[in-house]
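STRUCTURE:
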């Protein structure tokens, strides 16, 4: 039995070392996975904010389109009134 003692001690040390490696590896994997998940959540929040900003910008652009259309219609009407006030004369090239 004494001749097997060093082999048994070496085997036990090897098993213990491998067990510790697996535990540490698992901890590192868990830590890295947690970091990745937090970063993904932050990215998802950023995407949500960007989507909201894009929706607001689309609404603003639509509002500006409507305002420009009204201004163009008003300008056209003003030109017609000016033409009429000037006796049907138009200095503009149409």
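SEQUENCE:
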């Amino acid at each position: 039995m004494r001749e097997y003692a060093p082999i048994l001690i070496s085997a036990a040390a090897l098993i213990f070392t491998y067990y510790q490696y697996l535990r540490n590896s698992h901890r590192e994997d868990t830590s890295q996975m947690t970091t990745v998940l937090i970063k993904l959540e932050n990215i998802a929040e950023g995407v949500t904010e960007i989507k909201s900003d894009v929706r607001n910008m689309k609404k603003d652009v639509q509002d500006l389109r409507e305002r420009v259309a009204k201004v163009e219609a008003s300008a056209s009407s003003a030109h017609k009134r000016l033409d009429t006030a000037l006796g049907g004369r138009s200095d503009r090239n149409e």
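REMARK: The chain is about 85% helix and 0% strand.
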